[in-house]
Amino acid sequence: MNSTRWVQPAQRLVNKRTWILGYTAEDYPGDVRAVESLRNQGSQIDVIADFAYRVLPDGSLQGRISEVTLEESQRQGIAPLILFHNFNGRVFDTQPIRSILSSGNLQQTFIHNVIDSLPPNVAGVHLDFEQVEAQYRVPYITFLESLKATLHERGLLLTIAVPAKRSEWEAPGYDFAGIGRLGDAVTIMTYDEHYSGGDPGPIASLPWMTQALDYAITHIPRNKVLVGIPAYGYDWSNGPTTMVPMRDIPRLIESTDARVLWSDPAVEPYLYYWRGRERHTVWFENELSSKIRFSFVKNYRIRGIAIWRLGYETTRFWQGVNSKLKR
After folding, report:
1. CB within 8 A of 174, min separation 6: which ones?
2. Collapsing DSSP states into helix, strand and coil, what is residue 274?
3. Farthest-apart Cα atoms in the chain, separation
4. Tens of pLDDT along 4-41?
5. Whose CA is closest to 285, among 311, 314, 265?
6. Inter-residue contact 289 to 12 (CB < 8 Å)
7. Quick one: which of 143, 168, 238, 271 is 20 to 30 A from 55 by CA?
8. 10 Å Cβ neighbour count for 95?
9. Of 202, 183, 185, which Cα lies nearest the Cα of 193?
10. Residues in CB range of 122: below 8 A, 6 or more apart
């Protein structure tokens, strides 16, 4: 990190050798699980990224900051980042990205709106622009240069989420070397290897995560890399796929009499159960699989972890964080 005169919350983060970042979000109105996690586990968390604002094609913003999350993080001395994304409630929408990256004026409008939206006492911005297409690879870097300059002038951090990729041909819209040069920290989203819209399989198999990290550290400085840790699973059947938080898995097992199985190749648990005549397949992360993944931080000498998301995990998950990363 450079010699910028950081605001105090950013300086606290810059001084920390290891980051435990937790994403905070609400899956439905009145969802307080992330805030409860902050209250109960705040001493273990260094930084949050609040899933606050969706960007629109004209560079304007839609959404809000969770005031209660922000207040709790500040009360606990946790550095808050405000997250800007292109999720429209169903999918990550490419239209706002195309629109903004095609126009220097719209980029400046967006950056101006970002700065205006930031409350006092935040550490900076977390940018989660997903599905950036190949033709916007260079404009995305140019845009990040402008955003970084504006934030650093104010002593604020630019942190960025990028997809897990194992070669230049995967997610070609993301120039890891350029992003690694410009971001103060970069989350590698090593989750959703198998996702709700696809076939059943591991959420983040160990070989896949390892390949993604191997690729990332060849392009991004290790001390900027955060490895994504999923605290959930998916339940696939003939009906719509549902997401299952780690904390809800024991209840699912109890209600279905399912037997938990373990995949040695994936280093991840899974189970099957029947509801009527419909077979369900569930792959998920649990405390053991997470603990094994925490070892990446020391083995790879990277900055830390980024948990999607706070409120999904269990108390035992935090015991693993403490034993592997905090001691």
Report:
1. 132, 137, 140, 162, 163, 165
2. strand
3. 62
4. 899 999 999 999 999 999 999 999 999 999 999 999 99
5. 314
6. no
7. 168
8. 11
9. 202
10. 7, 9, 70, 79, 80, 81, 82, 156
Distance, CA of 193 to CA of 201 (rounded, Å): 8
Q: How far is CA 321 from CA 116, 186, 295, in A?
A: 35, 20, 10
C-alpha dihedral, 227 to 295 to 214 to 210, nearest 10°: -90
Residue-range domains of the chain with CATH: 8-231+286-326 (3.20.20.80)
CA distance 87 to 85: 6
Cβ neighbour number for residue 293 with a 10 Å cutoff: 24
Predicted confidence (pLDDT) per residue in 82-110, tens digit: 999 999 999 999 999 999 999 999 999 99
Where b means 16+ CB within 10 Å and e means fewer, 213-244 reads bebbbebbeeebbbbbbbbbbbbbbeeebebb
Parallel/antiparallel/unpaired status of strands 232-236 and 278-284? antiparallel
Q: Which residue has the tokens 């010699």?
A: 3
Distance of CA 143 to the CA centre of its chain: 21
Sequence-ordered list of residues with C-beta below 8 angstroms from that of 44, at least 6 positions apart, any chain: 20, 318, 321, 322, 326
Among 95, 105, 88, 90, residue whose Cα is nearest residue 54 = 88
> By the 8 A CB rule, do 52 and 82 touch?
yes
